[in-house]
């Protein structure tokens, strides 16, 4: 059901040599570029008509318009199961608590008397938030994208999710209800690469329906074609990341409960047949117990044949045996998991030493499922080892830091000779001339 990789006995290699020994899904965004390129060009030149045409082709439903009517969004909330509404409201409340604390404030540094540099944080004007709609329904992704954008102060927030045949070409009603709870009334029934292109290029009005204005930034997870479209259009739009298959790594020792560990590995495998579930442990007894638990729990799970079984059996999933927890720490840092659980005797201390992970879950009572919905943290996280250089979605994702330079004549005069010297050292004399012109072409002497 799940393979083993035994790294015990010899010193672990370092860097890429260690990464190459670890399981990872194949996710060739570059190859998908040639598939999405004509789609994006079609949307660029033909707008809404192209988006509608690709919705019919890929989602199996032809819509007459892209923007979801306000009445449908309100109706989805009215008809939402009260228990689901209460859960979403609590998820939103907790997410706001965490993301509100991430706000940055303007800060001014006096470099010299009369010379200051102020760093001002300005939200992007308009964002397009993508919510997947394939194998599962993700109202939680609405929360995780919208809340930090709103807390950052973004003025224009648009959400897009694929049209669903069973709901008359609208996105799933739970997605619409989540938008209603968050006060988002600009929602589009568009998915895949065509949705990213719609956000990048905008679309024209369709009769009485207003078109989609271009956005500055696109965030949110999706399949390989969404990732490829984001890569292709990066530069015209900002992007958060190219999200790959979801993944969990569990660093555990003999004190971990195999029932918990197996359940957490299965919960990640439930997403997609390419999802990665990795256990790193120094305990062969735990490894054997987890294998037994996997067999027992998978036998009674849902989505086994199309998701869980192929995910656990795939090359991206494995139980990795290490000599000790020091080696285990090196392995999880090399792997750079989207989600990392630490279930060891001294979990907090070990978790504090982890350098590469999208999010870290400490101990037996902080499973990844908690973070997916109600921890208050964000679940839009770097995948594919990108945690070594990238962060998850946050308020910072929607802010731009702008430096405001304010110098008086005396403050410039004090440093003018240095500026001129450096300009001439770089063979850029006009740079120096821009300083000299302010002082009658004679550089003031240093005080």
Provide a descriptive summary of the structure in words.
With 447 residues, the protein is of the alpha/beta class. The protein is built from 16 helices and 14 strands. Strands 1-11-10-9-12-13 form a six-stranded parallel β-sheet, with helices on both faces. Strands 6-5-4-7-8 form a five-stranded parallel β-sheet, sandwiched between helices. It has a three-stranded antiparallel β-sheet with strand order 2-3-14. α5 packs parallel to α6. The longest helix is centred in the first third of the chain and has 31 residues. The radius of gyration is 26 Å and the shape is globular.
Q: What keywords describe this structure?
A:
447 residues; 16 helices; globular; single chain
How would you sum up the major sheet? 6 strands, parallel
Structural class: alpha/beta
User: Termini distance?
Assistant: 75 Å
Q: Please state the oligomeric state of the protein chains shown.
A: single chain
Percent range of helical residues? 40-55%
Write down the secondary-structure element order.
EHHHHEEEHEHEHEHEEHEHHEHEHEHEHH
Q: Looking at the structure, what is the overall shape?
A: globular
The total of helices stands at: 16
How many beta-strand segments? 14
Arithmetic mean of pLDDT:
96
Low-confidence stretches: none
Q: What spatial order of strands do you see in the largest sheet? A: 1-11-10-9-12-13
Strand content: 15-25%
C-alpha Rg (nearest Å) = 26 Å
């Amino acid at each position: 059901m799940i393979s083993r990789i035994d790294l015990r006995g010899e010193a672990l290699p370092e860097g890429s040599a260690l990464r190459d020994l670890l399981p990872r899904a194949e996710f060739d965004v570059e190859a998908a570029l040639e598939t999405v390129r004509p789609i994006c060009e079609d949307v660029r030149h033909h707008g809404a008509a192209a988006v509608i045409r690709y919705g019919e082709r890929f989602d199996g439903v032809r819509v007459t318009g892209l923007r979801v009517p306000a009445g449908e969004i309100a109706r989805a909330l009215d008809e939402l199961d009260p228990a689901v509404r209460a859960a979403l409201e609590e998820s939103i409340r907790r997410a706001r608590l965490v993301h509100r604390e991430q706000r940055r404030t303007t800060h001014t540094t006096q470099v010299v008397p009369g010379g200051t540099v102020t760093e001002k944080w300005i939200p992007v004007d308009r964002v397009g938030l993508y919510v997947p709609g394939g194998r599962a329904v993700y109202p939680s992704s609405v929360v995780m994208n919208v809340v930090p954008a709103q807390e950052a102060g973004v003025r224009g927030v648009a959400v897009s999710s694929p049209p669903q045949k069973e709901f008359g070409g609208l996105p799933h009603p739970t997605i619409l209800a989540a938008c209603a709870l968050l006060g988002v009334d600009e929602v589009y029934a568009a998915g895949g690469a065509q949705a990213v292109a719609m956000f990048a290029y905008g679309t024209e009005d369709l009769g009485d329906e207003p078109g989609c204005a271009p956005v500055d930034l696109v965030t949110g997870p999706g399949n390989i074609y969404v990732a490829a479209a984001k890569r292709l259009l990066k530069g015209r739009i900002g992007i958060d990341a190219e999200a790959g298959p979801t993944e969990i790594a569990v660093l555990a020792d003999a004190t971990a409960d195999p029932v918990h560990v197996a359940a957490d590995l299965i919960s990640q495998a439930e997403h997609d047949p390419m999802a990665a579930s990795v256990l790193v442990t120094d305990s062969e007894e735990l490894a054997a117990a987890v294998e037994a638990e996997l067999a027992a729990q998978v036998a009674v799970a849902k989505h086994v044949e199309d998701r869980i079984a192929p995910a656990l059996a795939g090359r991206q999933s494995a139980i990795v045996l290490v000599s000790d927890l020091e080696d285990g720490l090196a392995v999880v840092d090399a792997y750079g998991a989207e989600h990392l659980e630490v279930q060891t005797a001294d979990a907090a201390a070990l978790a504090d030493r982890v350098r590469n992970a999208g999010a870290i879950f400490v101990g037996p009572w902080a499973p990844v499922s908690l973070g997916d919905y109600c921890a208050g943290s964000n679940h839009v996280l770097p995948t594919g080892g990108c945690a070594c250089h990238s962060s998850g979605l946050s308020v910072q994702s929607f802010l731009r830091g702008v430096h405001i330079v304010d110098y008086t004549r005396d403050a410039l005069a004090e440093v003018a000779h240095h500026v001129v010297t450096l300009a001439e050292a770089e063979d850029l004399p006009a740079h120096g001339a821009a300083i000299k012109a302010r002082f009658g072409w004679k550089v003031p002497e240093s005080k």
